[in-house]
Design a protein that fits this description.
By secondary structure, the protein is mainly alpha-helical. Helix content is about 80%, strand content about 0%.
Amino acid sequence: MWNYTKECLQILYWTFFKPYTCRKYLQDIHPNLKLDSNPFSERANFADNPRLKRYADQTAWINMLTPFVIAILVAIPYSLYAEEPFKWHQSLLFLCGWSLGVLIATNSSDKLQDWLRAAFFYTFILLVLWLSGILPKLIIMLPNGEVWVIQITDFFRNILENKIISLAFGVAFGVAFGVAFGVAFGVAFGVA
C-alpha cells in the first residue's frame, strides 16, 4: 500500500513540477501515453501491459482524492481568516459527485456506460422540454395536470435550493474531465 501511495504522489509531483520526467515515464509505459491523454482509452492493452493498468488506476485515484485533500487544506485557513464561512456542504457535495463521476468514467462495464449515456440523454431531453414549456403544457392536458406541474416545479426548486445540483455537476464534470484530459487538468479542474 505504501509503495502504491508513493507512486501516486510521485506521478502527481512529476505531472506538475517535472513534466519532462513524467513524459519519459509515460513513454516507457506505453508509446501512446502523453501528459494530457486518457490512459483508459488504451483499456484493450491492459491485459498485455500491467504497468499501463497500474498507471490508469493510479490516475483515477489521484483524480478522485487530490481535490478533497486540497479543498480541505485551502478551506481550513479560509474559514479562519475570511469574513464569510466556507461552504463545506456545497463543496463536499460537488467533490463527492466528482469522485462518483471519475468512478463512472473509469468503469469498464459496457452496460453501465450505456445505461448512463441513456439516462443523461433522456434527462437532458426532459429538461429541454420542461424549460421550453412544451412538457408543462402536455402535463396540464392530463387530469389534475395543474397540480402535477406545481408539484414537479416545487420538486425541482427544492433540489436547486438544497444544493443537490452541486452533486449533479460534480458527477457530470467528473465523468467529462476526471481522467479524460490527464492527471494535471483533471486535478486542476476538480480543485477549481
